[in-house]
Amino acid sequence: MGIFQKLSTVLKSNINDLIARSENPEKMLNQIILDMRDQLAKAKREVAAAIADERKLRAQLDDEVKQTRDWEHRAMLAVKEGRDDLAKQALIRQQEHAQRAGALEQTWGAQAQETEKLKASLRQLNDKIEEAKRKRNLLIAKQKRAQAQRRIHETMSGLSDTSAFEAFNRMAEKIEDQERRTLAQVEVTEALAGDSLEKEFLRLESGYGDADVEDRLLALKQEMGLIAAPAAKEPKALGAGSGKDEEEDHDDDAPEVRPKENDVPVADAVLLEEFDRLERESSKE
Questions:
Q1: Looking at the predicted structure, is the pLDDT value of residue 124 above 50?
Q2: For the chain, what are the domain ranges?
Q3: Lowest mean pLDDT among 57-61, 112-116, 199-203
Q4: Contact, 82 vs 153, CB < 8 A?
Q5: What DSSP state is assigned to residue 257?
Q6: Is the dihedral of CA 179, 184, 187, 192 positive or negative?
Q7: 72, 94 Cβ separation under 8 angstroms
Q8: pTM, 2 dp
Q9: Is pLDDT above 50 for 190?
Q10: Considering only CA atoms, which of 100, 98, 99, 105 is closest in space to residue 58?
Q11: Cα–Cα distance between 206 and 212 in angstroms, integer?
Q12: How confident is the prediction for the chain on average, in pLDDT?
């Protein structure tokens, strides 16, 4: 079983265990990402070790190739010097190093291919983890939106119960009733605690407006021709006549305007009803 097959098995087992035990999807996703990053760190260490082995094999191969060339040069030197015995020994060593170089080249080639595969797998694993991180953010956003929708639905379901509104209306009515009672108590307290003499004078002072109403009524009757306008008074010489004559010159026809003590304001509804009755009677005539 390869290293990445082992990592895949470990990740799947950890994820399944987290899903089985998790009650918070956000925490579960974060924990999965952390586990993935831990496994990625382990994979990096494994790939680094494989690369180190491949480089070690390459160094050994290069050394054997160098030894092969060196012994070949020594054999040629021995031949030039007429030392065939040394040349033979050099060729034997050159052949041994060449055989080892051939074996190392095959091993190194296979190791190099596996190392490249491990590098590619490591890049894919890193890309998948980055993609998982992006998906985690999207999934967390979806999960929060789903939670918000559920809370809104629960709130709306709770509001559909009329008992809450009925309780609210009862409390509002209770508060308004308390307010009315408080205002009534204040009014009663002011009525009992006020100065009755001062209020009586205020009532008398307010009654002076009736004289103005009487004057306006008299002017309206004169304008309508119901009563005669008062005659203009002649200017009198000083010392002429007596006080009695002055009293006789007083226009007896002019009605005396006095404020009526018993006049009280009439309600608007009653007043309008009385005017309607007068208009109906006038129209009949």
A1: yes
A2: 3-162
A3: 199-203
A4: no
A5: -
A6: negative
A7: yes
A8: 0.43
A9: yes
A10: 105
A11: 12
A12: 75
pLDDT digits (tens, 9 = 90+) for 172-189: 888 888 888 888 888 777
Buried b (16+ CB within 10 A) or exposed e, 262-274: eeeeeeeeeeeee
The Cα–Cα gap between 68 and 85 comes to 18
What are the tokens at 42? 């382990």
Instruction: Please report, as a single letter, which amino acid is at residue 242.
Output: S
39's CB contacts (< 8 A; 6+ apart) are 7, 10, 11, 125
CA nearest neighbour of 61 among 20, 26, 102: 102
CB distance 31 to 18 below 8 Å = yes
The Cα–Cα gap between 101 and 98 comes to 5
Could you read off the pLDDT of 10-50 as tens digits, one per residue? 555 555 555 555 557 778 778 888 888 888 888 888 889 98
Instruction: Provide DSSP, 196-243.
Output: HHHHHHHHHHHTTHHHHHHHHHHHHHHHHTSSPPPPPPPP--TT-S-H
Whole-angstrom distance, CA of residue 19 vs CA of residue 21: 6
Token pair belonging to 41: 């760190």
